[in-house]
Every structure is written in structure tokens, then in C-alpha cells.
Amino acid sequence: MTSTYFTEETDPFCLATIDAAAMLFDAPWQRYAVIGDSLSAGTGDKSVGYGNQGWSDRFAHILRQVRPDLAYLNTAVIRATTVDTLDHQIDGMRDFAPDLLHLPCGANDLLRRSPDFGTIEQDMRKMYDLAAETGAQLTTFTLGRAYAVPVFPDWTERVLTLNDLTRALADEYDVVVVDMWDHPVNSRENLLSADRIHFSMSGQAVMASEMVRALAATLARRTP
């Protein structure tokens, strides 16, 4: 673990708002929605030297520099599973009619004595099917390796399996994946919140910047 401490201005993985907005100068999205769990919500403790905003709110702020009239909906709920998201958030998301939509990656589906990955895949596929019907650009994360639940000895294997499932579905549905599994930020000793699960605001800032980079790359590939 690295003991180097940064501020938002000195963090090599963080983009200044003006630079991030410049990377998305031609972004077409006007209706941005986020559904899912605490990872989608951007839950985390404060970090000295960083703004107190989760990644999703940060990203909405950046996108508003390009699209001042951006409509933004975040219905994410702490501890929500994929089934919870399907049961309680999908209808509101569809009524909102997003053109940019962030999907959860099933973190809370792992918090069972013996996760059934066949069922998890079915639930996630149903969520992807319903999300794809909106015609929105879809995004998601993979879980970082710093995220740990020691009570489960096979936790790393669980996360690797879920991340592989997320990548496979994302490839099938043309979803932009921000892959946090082996991102260097995982090595920072001050990354996690007190619960040792959620990224603190320093990590949230990095995740927002990585979302900008991933979507900017997607836009660049679409440019003739």
C-alpha cells in the first residue's frame, strides 16, 4: 500500500472540472440517470483535500459544464441488490427516459453465504435488457480489489467472477466499462471509508475522472 497523500489538485488521476468538460465538449447527452446501490450513489467518507461529492454527482456537474440544461436522476439506494433495482428503480428510470444511464455491477449480490452466479447473471441480463430498451448509452463499473469483506474467505474469487460477468455482459450490450479492479488507486492506504468497503471522496473523485476518460474515448471512436 502506498502512503503518498494527495489533494484533488495534485492527484494524478483526477481531472480538473474545466479539463474534464473539455474532454466531453461534444457530448450529446441531455438526460443522465443513475440506478443501483451505494456504489452508484457515490457513498463514502470525506477526504481531506477533496470535495465532498460522490462520483455520480461529480460527473453530473462536469457534464453540466457542457450541457447546462442537463436533467439528472439518481435513484440509487444503499444495500440494493440487482433484484431490488429491478423491482424499485427501473420504472422510474424508464419514465425519466435517459440518454445516458449508469447501471450497478451487482456488488450486494455477493453478500450471501453462497452466491448463485447463474441467478445473478439472469438478474443482471434482465436489467441490461430493460436498460437497453431506452436507447441510452449505458455505463458501469467493475469492483476494485480494495473492496474486501473478510468474513468471506473466497471474497476475491467472488469479485473476480462478478467482474468477468460484468465485462461479458457489457461487451454484449455495448456498455462502457470503467474497470476499477486493478486501478492503481486501489493501493492507496487512505482509499477506503471507515466501513472498509466504500471508496472515500478521494476515490470518488478518481472514479468520476475515469468515467470522463472512458466516455471521452467512446465519443472519439464515434467521430468520423
From TrEMBL:
**Protein name (Swiss-Prot/TrEMBL):** SGNH/GDSL hydrolase family protein
Q: Which organism is it from?
A: Streptomyces bugieae
The record's CDD domains line, in alphabetical order, gives: SGNH_hydrolase_like_1 (cd01832)
Residue spans making up a coiled coil are none
What keyword terms does UniProt attach to this protein?
Answer: Hydrolase
Mark the transmembrane ranges: none
Entry annotated with the keyword Hydrolase: yes
Q: Which residues, if any, are the signal sequence?
A: none
Q: Name one GO molecular function term.
A: hydrolase activity
What SUPFAM superfamilies does the record point to?
Answer: SGNH hydrolase
SGNH hydrolase-type esterase domain sequence ranges: 34-205
EC assignment: the record states: 3.1.-.-
